[in-house]
Write a structure and sequence with these properties.
Blueprint: H1 8-22, E1 49-52, H2 57-69, E2 73-76, H3 82-91, H4 98-116, H5 122-128, E3 129-135, H6 145-155, E4 162-167, H7 186-209, H8 218-235, H9 240-251, E5 264-269, H10 271-275, H11 284-290, E6 294-296, H12 300-319, H13 337-361, H14 371-379, H15 393-403, E7 409-415, H16 419-435, E8 441-446, H17 451-480, H18 484-492, H19 495-498, H20 511-518
Parallel strand pairs: 1-2, 1-3, 3-4, 5-6, 5-7, 7-8
The chain binds iron/sulfur cluster.
Residues 97, 99, 140-142, 270, 272, 389, 415, 418-421 line the site of iron/sulfur cluster.
């Protein structure tokens, strides 16, 4: 008898059902309802506290102040710690990347604190607080953060807690009218961007000064006052530049000794993991400073420039495929010149604003990265089309650091479970270090535990970096026929070089060597 023809589709469906039953997966798929920000309306503003967190203390404080100045009630959460990680793991999905656990857990931890220790009822918390965060459409897990927040909050007993999202690529087109609680208009975007840039220049300057302070704690004390000064300016809608000048006067009182050769260590990697100042990267920046290094951190402004670059790059590519780009936002039948001009103007505005702030506070000689150069440097090893995490930036930055002698050592922070950073770019960096065998590059994976292991690996690499910084200084001193005592006397006798803001011209990676070359 001839066999009946096989119905492949129903056979596969039957097989899938059978396997799902065996694995205990016979349940409905989770469907995230499409939500808008309507649940937070204009009339809620006076009675609702916005919680924000995610960057450094300076950024979070200033963003809070900027939002307060716009009429919102705002509170910043502490930097996520390992207790937050535990909350994230308890209530989050399995298999997430570490930053998801830390940030989601940090919110749950705070709400649990409000409920169990501050004595608020769950209803008061759900009705009186919202969480505001940036969202994106991926392609990495960043696109799923908001779902993770909602899932964890529901499972932790805060069902209905509002997570309000603004799209990081959405710009000012997200304005949704006067009835919406969170109005994402020009004022909102400028307020946030200015706060982020002010946080950047403050942090960048602090990382330059702190390693060389002669009175321990002097920089942190001045920073605390600077955060206050800037917060007041943002809250009162006063001049930020004037506040930065006041910060400069305060920071100028810090005494420094830059004649000590210190290794410069750049921290790159996944955006959140390299930026946070808490357990999420084992307090990496502080640890490096305790070990005698000067830390070169990456500002949030770099990320803004990268977003502009991405937009421009994609628009230029799409222009060549116009006939096929017929979607709702496609370029088919449109002229993209205006969009390209706007992106160019946005880049100029970001750079000009940043330099205005940098000059006002005394951050001299700081160059924001040239994103075209970074993309070109990376492109030989990492396709510029690949997105997610920092994209090609990690690779391009490492090549730039090595070729332009920016530092003595680069640490790349890879969160456990991160696809783009630890899965992709980490593999590519092996090709870069093979091309430059003398470069000191250390990728570290952050898991929440394993701190001692990571720190001891850093200490081993720092030993070499320290030797290189010393050798650089010795070379310059020999070139100039100076001994170390005369070099120190020269610097100590000069008001210019004793200044907390002094930055000799870049020739070597180390500040002491550059100073010796300059005096
Ligand atoms: S870049 Fe990596 S760590 Fe960051 S959100 Fe994406 S997957 Fe997670």
């Amino acid at each position: 008898m001839e066999n009946a023809p096989l119905d492949i589709d129903s056979e596969l469906a039957r097989f899938a059902r059978e396997e799902a039953r065996k694995l205990g997966l016979e349940r409905e798929q989770w469907v995230e309802p499409v939500r808008s920000n309507e649940s937070f309306t204009a009339k809620d503003r006076a009675t609702t506290t916005m919680l924000v967190s995610g960057l450094t203390l300076a950024h979070d404080t200033l963003v809070c102040a900027a939002l307060t100045g716009l009429g919102y009630r705002v509170e910043a959460l502490d930097a996520p710690d390992n207790a937050a990680l535990q909350f994230g793991k308890e209530f989050g999905n399995r298999g997430q990347c570490n930053p998801t656990y830390y940030t989601v857990g940090n919110l749950v931890k705070h709400l649990v604190y409000l409920r169990d220790e501050a004595g608020l009822s769950t209803a008061d918390i759900v009705n009186g607080y919202i969480f505001v965060t940036a969202g994106a459409c991926g392609p990495c897990r960043f696109g799923m953060y908001v779902t993770e927040y909602r899932k964890a909050l529901r499972d932790a007993g805060f069902d209905g807690f509002r997570v309000v999202l603004f799209q990081q690529q959405g710009g000012m087109k997200q304005a949704t009218g006067d009835e919406t609680g969170l109005v994402i208009d020009q004022k909102f975007v400028f307020g946030i961007v200015r706060a982020l840039m002010a946080g950047d220049v403050l942090n960048l300057l602090a990382y330059r000064i702190r390693p060389y302070e002669t009175v321990p704690g002097a920089t942190d004390e001045a920073l605390r006052e600077c955060r206050e000064l800037l917060s007041t300016a943002f809250r009162d809608d006063a001049s930020v530049v004037a506040a930065l000048w006041r910060c400069r006067r305060r920071l100028a009182r810090i005494e420094v000794d830059r004649t000590q050769p210190k290794p410069v260590v750049s921290v790159i990697g996944e955006f959140w993991a390299m930026t946070t100042e808490g357990d999420g990267n084992y307090q990496l920046q502080r640890f490096l400073e305790q070990e005698g290094a000067e830390v070169d951190v990456q500002g949030v402004t770099n990320w803004l420039l990268f977003m502009v670059w991405e937009n421009r790059y994609d628009t230029l590519q799409r222009q060549t495929l116009k006939q096929d780009d017929g979607g709702r936002k496609g370029l088919s039948g449109k002229d993209a010149t205006k969009k390209l001009w706007m992106l160019e103007a946005a880049e100029h505005a970001v750079r000009a604003h940043f330099q205005l702030y940098a000059k006002a506070i005394g951050l001299h000689g700081y160059h924001l990265p040239d994103m075209e150069q970074i993309a070109a440097l990376a492109s030989k090893h990492y396709d510029n089309h690949v997105r997610g995490g920092e994209g090609h930036m990690e690779v391009g930055k490492l090549v730039h650091f090595i070729e332009d002698r920016v530092n003595h050592m680069t640490i790349s922070v890879k969160p456990f479970g991160c696809m783009p950073s630890s899965g992709v770019s980490d593999g590519v960096q092996a090709a870069i270090t093979a091309r430059y065998p003398d470069a000191i590059f250390l990728p570290i994976e952050t898991t929440g535990d394993g701190k001692v292991n990571v720190q001891s690996r850093i200490q081993m690499m720092l030993f070499r970096a320290r030797q290189n910084a010393r050798a650089e200084l010795d070379l310059v001193l020999a070139e100039k026929g100076l001994d170390e005592a005369s070099f120190k006397a020269c610097v100590n006798g000069s008001r210019r070089w004793r200044s907390a803001f002094a930055r000799p011209a870049h020739r070597f990676a180390g500040v002491a060597a550059n100073l010796a070359a300059a005096v």
